[in-house]
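Standup, Tuesday
Yesterday: got the pipeline producing structure tokens again.
Today: sanity-check two examples.
Blockers: none.

Example 1:
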Amino acid sequence: MLRPYSLINSHGKPHFGHFAQPVNEVNVKNTDYRTPMNTPAGKWKKHFNFKQFQYFGGISDDLIFGCALADLRYIGAVFVYVYRLSDGQMKTWQFKKPLSLGLDLTNRPDNGVSTFKSGKRNIQMRYQLNSQGERRKTLSIDLGSELKVQAKMIESSDFQTMALCTPTAVNGWVYAQKTAALNVLGQVECELGNFDLKQSNCYGHHDFSAGYMRRETFWNWACFSGKGMSGNKTQTPILGLNVSWGVNETGYSENCFWVGNDLHTLPQVQFKFDRDDANSNWRISSQNQQINLSFKPEGMHKERLNAGIMATNFKQIFGRFNGHLITKDGQRFEIENQYGFVEDQYSKW
């Protein structure tokens, strides 16, 4: 496993593979970015072909919430939602800005700040690494009387982050850094109520992704954070899941799950669902049955846009997982009615 300080080396090439620790900087300005014909790309292609997105989500006893910031160069996209489990009530907010005006995403996943500002509306994701090796991720949202969020998740120095960089298409690369199974502290205040995240047993996950993705990109993704049961059902460890297909598939897999601070790798997975029926059940499994999960939808955030040079058809669906996860050494964890997320995403950017 590699541990480069910066992602791009002195020759302008990214370090590929899994990293023992997250990189300090996605130093895209140092990239020797080429066209598919292996000639140096112009500065405008180098700028506009680079994409970033960051996501902070939480799952508690009575609330699910999520916030995504995406800099697609031609457009900046932000969405926020809160969903109350007790009655299925949901509130959503979406913002789109041409040329990502008002949106500034950091390229430093350890010590950086990503911000969105639109009038009096402010969103901030802050990343901090202290001298003891502890990482802190903080989400602050101020949408006036509609929504206020102050939430943080802390990775101890021995937490095993999933971090890797993979080649994509003939001339691109993607860096992905993901965490799950982390306690979330803080407050959410909105029309649905005031929620103390610690008291409601909130667990969170985070995604920091950036790179030169395919012009037309597709993925499915599944994630949850919460308490599972071991095979003898005498323990309730904190479990987190991150699996996908469609982006990081060239030589390295991001698929994994966490048991507390420990990361366990998974092989390639298959997603089966009815794309014509958003309420259909999903099946997420691997050929070796290390992962075998069903997913039943309960709510959804979706976006659809076809603007010629750009397009998106996006569904983030939340609901309940059932099934099992098995480590490579045979330890089995049962998943019963665990809330989490799946995504079905197509983008042309």
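Example 2:
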Amino acid sequence: MKNSRERIAVIGGGSWGTALANRLAGNGHDVRLWAFEPELVLEINQQHTNTPFLPGIALHPELVCTGSLPDAVNGCGMIVLVTPVQVMRGVLKQIIPHVTADMVIANASKGIELETLRTVSGICEELLPAEVTRRFVALSGPTFAREVALGLPSLIVAAARDESAARRVQAAFSCSCLRVYTNNDVIGVELGGAVKNVIAIAAGICDGLGFGHNARAALITRGLAEMKRLGQAMGADAATFAGLAGMGDLVLTCTGDLSRNRTVGFKLGQGMRLADILAEMRMVAEGVKSAESVYNLARKLGVEMPIVENTFQILHQDKPARQAVMDLMARALKAEQ
């Protein structure tokens, strides 16, 4: 499929934002990548690399990076948001004056805002005009940034209530190495991306404790059940969680060595302190903060999520990891559901 050329702004110069911007540039689009760090802007423009986040990967020579949000957004027809969810509101407030009614806003970040318990679509609905937010697109799936940047075969989902917006994002990103499916379940796709990071930390803890493959497989399966329960309480389609943005992303993040969230959990399971783990990391592990927001959202809605609850307690209440696993195993016996 040949893509019509678009002017696209990608907001966020981390590994995922850079990988997506690079893919769009490779597809022939006019791409402006916004990065916060001035030294990163210079490196991408002058050396066509992003050493801090995608070391050893050559970026498309036509990819342009800027440190100015207005420069990135002005004149574009599509904005792809890839900043950490906890700073998304502040970034959006700076973008608002430059958003036009015909823009498509796509979000590729995964998480739930701590203060409001809103997904990114909810934040956008609060801040942006209705004619823009009705075309909001959630972009998610089992995709490590490095593999997408290397052009390895990958699949993602573009979910929107407006089918034409989903198809526009689908067309912009699709190529021989990136296959994009459309979907209309925005909240389901967003929740899949947020919850899987928390479950991945739990899976890493199990691996760090040396509990084996049986425990990890069980945790992934029961984690999926928790994800689906929360989604259904918020009006999501249960079938979404059996797809790329649910099971697909969950399996990848819980098992892949490139998973930042699994890495955090693995080191916790080995006995490291959370503060020391995070101090070693340049990239954000969204699941650390999502554990708190998902836990609070589940409590607000009355949804039972014992894996999320224990992961939250390990991360934020200093609960010993082994004790958390013992508590999960000792829960009252019941039928699988």
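Quick observation on example 2: The radius of gyration is 19 Å. The chain has a mean pLDDT of 95.
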